[in-house]
Amino acid sequence: MDLDKKLDLTKASIDKASAINFGTDLPLQLAIKEVKGTGKRVMAVFEDPACPSCRILHKLLSQMDDVTIYHFVYPVIDPTAGAYKVKATLCAPEANRVAIWNTFMDGGTVEGDVNCDASAVGTIMDAGKKLGIHNTPTVFLQNGQRLVGALPPDQFVAALDEAAPR
Question: Hey, which end of the chain has fewer CB within 10 Å, N or C?
Answer without folding.
Answer: C
